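User: Structure please.
Assistant: Input sequence and predicted structure:
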Amino acid sequence: MPEWPEMENYRSLLSGLLLDKEISGVTLNREKSVNLEPEMFKQELIGRKVIFVERRAKYLIFHLDNGRRLLLHLMLGGMLYFGSEEDKPKRNTQIEIQFGDQTLYFIGLRLGYLHLLTAKQTEEELSDLGPELLDRRMNEQRFIQLLSGRKGMLKTTLVNQHVMAGIGNCYADEIAFAAELRPDVKMQDLDEQDLAKLYQAVKVVLTDAAEHGGYMEMPLTAEDKLTGGFNDLCKVYDREGETCVRCGHPIVKTELASRKVFYCANCQHGK
């Protein structure tokens, strides 16, 4: 599932491709992916322009020139492609939004969706999300306060969108590795020094992953050489049996709360 770095990468790239371009057509191949009747959805979009692309947690918000918003959640398996019919991937598309001779293709939206909402509805939809960890208002002290007194395992806390926004399976494992903590360590056993180290790990991992285009391998455009660049830089995620880059021991795969987990049993510690 696309996480913070993947969606931030999409936001950055799409901001340079879509802004102020008029929507010239809409194709819906899966009606359940939108929240309006197909013809109404099309009528509401055609002739509009995207004036701003925002990311919130794992969501993208396309701000339209009439004040409305398109709220996108790709969910499991969802991805985007921007280009022409000739160069798009040979995949089924659920939604296609045309901008002249270029099209934004929404792929793999079996569970994902694109909803047309008012600004207020968008705010309400996202109201239960936790804070953005790389927001300028977040700092080490606030992060420690956010997690102090919480119970449960580290990984389940990191992926809880009500506690903090945007982290999923991949980056929870990468952050735990960077902080030298086991994913199953109990939050109540971590002291302020551990939480401070965890905060630094969050900042380093998410920033590095976004700068390298996240771990999803399909490019956004035919010229895109950035997207997916972090896949080869993952230290533990999907690295079962490979040698730990820090200590040389093999990476272990297990399961926590029905989620697969990757970590080094030698240099990641519990308390």
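The beta strands are 25-28, 50-56, 59-64, 69-73, 79-83, 93-99, 102-107, 113-117, 251-256, 259-264.
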